[in-house]
Amino acid sequence: MKALLLENIHPAAVEILEGRGYQVDLRAGSLSEDELIEALDSVSLVGIRSNTNVTERVLESAAGLEAIGCFCIGTNQVDLAAAAARGVPVFNAPYSNTRSVVELVIAEIIALARRLPEKTQRMHDGVWDKSAKGSHEVRGRTLGIVGYGNIGTQLSTVAEALGMDVVFYDTADRPAHGTARRLRTLKELLTTSDVVSLHVDGRPGNAGFFGAEEFGAMKSRSMFINASRGMVVDYDSLRDHLLSGHIAGAAIDVFPAEPKAQGDPFESALRGLDNVILTPHIGGSTQEAQEEIGWFVAEKLARFALEGSTALSVNVPAVLPQPLTPGHRLGLLHHNVPGVLAELNAAFAAAGDNVIDQHLSTKDQLGYVVADTSDPLSAAAVEQLRGAEYCIWARTW
Ligand SMILES: NC(=O)c1ccc[n+]([C@@H]2O[C@H](COP(=O)([O-])OP(=O)(O)OC[C@H]3O[C@@H](n4cnc5c(N)ncnc54)[C@H](O)[C@@H]3O)[C@@H](O)[C@H]2O)c1
Ligand SMILES: O=C(O)[C@H](O)COP(=O)(O)O
């Protein structure tokens, strides 16, 4: 049983997987498509972060791959549909680094409002420039949050505690937290906010979502923050608005193309601007978040591989079975067609197996059933189900 963990995943994950009998290959950087195909040979579990793309071609060639762990929030780097079609569940850590992102953004709001990037640069250049010009308190200023999900809502609460007025815009219905106000249009948010912070997800439809029109609509001398995904924003347009002085400052953590390994060169239209904070995608990179993510996702991978649990999977039906009695459990991932459960129960009945616990969950075109029997599973029943047209895989534990 081999597991491959890329992108500096926390050792907590290694401890969990090794403790469950896996031989773990832990690597620092991410891999290209071809490198990943080669590295996945005879690997059953793979762990990645935001910088490794698991494409349909990778999945096609990784015959032994059982599950994928995204040791982060975003799962846009994985072809989720292609993985689901091959019966490969994908897991992530939806909440573990939320707080870390919020704290970074709060720090950036204050740093930009006090012009810290320019001030510290001047001091390092040997220039004493004591002045209040262009520096503001954040108390009483309006923060506009675009994308009011797990991160957006927590940012809302913390910013409110600092005395900021919070407005938000989300394409989904999201209740307001505290005294935050929901705005009906993005335009309204842009024309109202002193700081605009993006927290949308990385769905393909969000590519290029924020560009010249949106920057143009922002208030004069407002500030812009993006810690969501790089492809969401047109950074050439942001540069134009920073150079014209229309946007007073920006903090950017994510980029359309990010270097694959430590020390690789970094290129961006925003380099060299002293009113811009640039960080290397570290929103979720705190010891606390990484350790939590390490055990959380490793646990999900192990519980799937060793017990059949798909709880919290983002692409296959979620089933959380009862504790395992070895030799008594069947897991059947199948195309979602009528009659599967009836056939499964008939096969067990014909073999004289009594089903004592059974869970079925469906999601789009897929169904997943986990059945526990009172006696050890009958091989005949399992083989019959394995041979059925609707079967994607049938595993026993
Ligand atoms: N910089 C980092 O290190 C870092 C760390 C964690 C997460 N992230 C990114 O932040 C994103 C958000 O995280 P989350 O946990 O809050 O996700 P989430 O899914 O809880 O929230 C995303 C919200 O954005 C909304 N949304 C999507 N597209 C939108 C659009 N075009 N306009 C308005 N609203 C839109 C959704 O309806 C949802 O409410 C993640 O998907 C990930 O890409 C980055
Ligand atoms: O999706 C996420 O959680 C963030 O983008 C962090 O990604 P990372 O683990 O690659 O830093």
UniProtKB/TrEMBL annotation:
Annotated metabolic or biological route of this protein: Amino-acid biosynthesis; L-serine biosynthesis; L-serine from 3-phospho-D-glycerate: step 1/3
Leader sequence residues: none
Molecular function in Gene Ontology: (S)-2-hydroxyglutarate dehydrogenase activity; NAD binding; phosphoglycerate dehydrogenase activity
Catalytic reactions on record: (R)-2-hydroxyglutarate + NAD(+) = 2-oxoglutarate + NADH + H(+); (2R)-3-phosphoglycerate + NAD(+) = 3-phosphooxypyruvate + NADH + H(+)
GO biological process: L-serine biosynthetic process
Documented EC number(s): 1.1.1.399, 1.1.1.95
Keyword Cell membrane set for record: no
ACT domain segment(s): 329-397
Pfam annotation, one family: 2-Hacid_dh
Keywords annotated in UniProt: Amino-acid biosynthesis, NAD, Oxidoreductase, Serine biosynthesis
Top EC category: oxidoreductase
Task performed by this protein: Catalyzes the reversible oxidation of 3-phospho-D-glycerate to 3-phosphonooxypyruvate, the first step of the phosphorylated L-serine biosynthesis pathway. Also catalyzes the reversible oxidation of 2-hydroxyglutarate to 2-oxoglutarate.
Family statement drawn from the similarity comment of this UniProt entry: Belongs to the D-isomer specific 2-hydroxyacid dehydrogenase family.
Name used for this protein in its record: D-3-phosphoglycerate dehydrogenase
Organism this protein belongs to: Nocardioides immobilis
